[in-house]
Amino acid sequence: MSILIYLIPLALFMGALGLQAFLWSLKSRQYDDLDGASCRILADDDDAP
């Protein structure tokens, strides 16, 4: 049971770290153009001379 003294704060820290990473991705506008990203993968950009 004494291992919970270490695991609970570690789990809370990792959860806060994941939340911070998610909020950073929202703030840096990672999710703005979802349709453009799905169409770009289908585009054939072979610029062969």
Automatic annotation (TrEMBL):
This is Cbb3-type cytochrome-c oxidase maturation nitrogen fixation protein FixS 1. Signal peptide: none annotated. The keyword Mitochondrion does not apply. The chain crosses the membrane at residues 6-26. InterPro entries: Cyt_oxidase_maturation_cbb3. The gene is fixS-1. Keywords: Membrane, Plasmid, Transmembrane, Transmembrane helix. The lineage of its organism: Bacteria, Pseudomonadati, Pseudomonadota, Alphaproteobacteria, Hyphomicrobiales.
